[in-house]
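TOPIC: backbone geometry
CONTENTS: sequence, structure tokens:
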Amino acid sequence: MVRIFRCFLVIPLVGMVLGMSACSPLHAVQPTSDVDQSFYGNPTNPVQSSTVPNADENFGAEGRAVIFASDRSCLGQASQYQAGHYVRYQPLPFDASIQSANRQQQLLNSDLPLSPGEIVDIQIEDGDGFAGRYVVNPDGTIQLALLKPIDVVGHGVTQAAERIGAALVNAGYFQPQSVHVSVRVLHWAPIEVAVSGAVFEAGQVRINDLEPSAVLVERLNAFGDYASRRTLVEALRAASGIRPDAKLDQVIVIRNGWQLEVDMSGVLTGSSVTQLALIAGDRIVVPTTGCFQQQLMRPSQITPKGFRVFMSNLTVTSQGNASGGSTSYSTSLPYGTRLLQAVVSANCVGGVQATNAARKVVLASKNPISGEFQVIERSIERLMRQAHLDQENPYLMPNDAIACYDSDITNLREAARTLGDVFAPLKLLF
């Protein structure tokens, strides 16, 4: 009777444990071929607008604007942003774009319009009571003694001097032929510009933050200031860099109703780049090509230096991420990292081949265009042997999630251990 009762008790327990092993999350996550074909980190697959479900062509699933470039063809994308290679026995080719870029840069940056927060020095001949150093107010005006506020935002120093002279004449302090005003910028203020399109963090960004007070005092003692952190490159960097689908040679800058297209591909190729200075209220739009361009998957001035990936490696030999070596150093990866490199960094590769060769890894990534999460599954052994294939070894994006799962042999071994833990107390009863 005791043996019969023991059998009735053991058989359900064995079935329950084996059922738990067979219904593990590894078997529940089965990727479809459609996900693999449209996965964002795969450079061999173009990013089609059809991946945006139930949305207009210009808006993603989360309502974010998706601005496509005028030329969305993916032909020739493999070599578009590659850096040039030269040999020493051949002369360097003449780059006519350098002169064109210099002329464009001089035209755009000459007499740069003033923005709120700018520090200017105003000198007036025979007008010491009005001269001095002034800060442009948030409303875009400067306040000279005994005068009404003078609007200077949006005007260069030449036009600002003319406006100040006209205000002095209108107030009756000077005659038109005797007023002489000079305006010089002492410090360019931090500004807010809008960056949207194919960047990782679109929105309003602040560039050219004020330097420490000691350095600022030294700058104020000398006339003039160079706004090294108010450029288009700095704005793209402040938006966490461009995405791999960015149309880099067609970056759009909108200022006071005027639209300008700037070629920024020289940042990656080494050719000349127009260093466009920005002012408050500028809007930057980076169109998307609809294509994943692996030439943009490397650290640069306008791409991320590195990013964070969330990893989970709860193996038998590693009862937690900390003991398994998945620390902040292993989860912070350089930009351009592929899946295999992250799997190795998470200590998911290696060990006993008989039990660990059949392990699998699951990658969850968010498509920045459609806003959808895409989940793919890879065999770690096949990933190691076919790492050269883009289809098997995709690029990782910031904030991707990686989870490593044990093999079926390891799962069966753990099921046997669980049975042993369950039966151990029963020995005391029988």
The CA atoms of residues 193 and 282 lie 5 Å apart. Residues 2-54+305-413 form one domain.
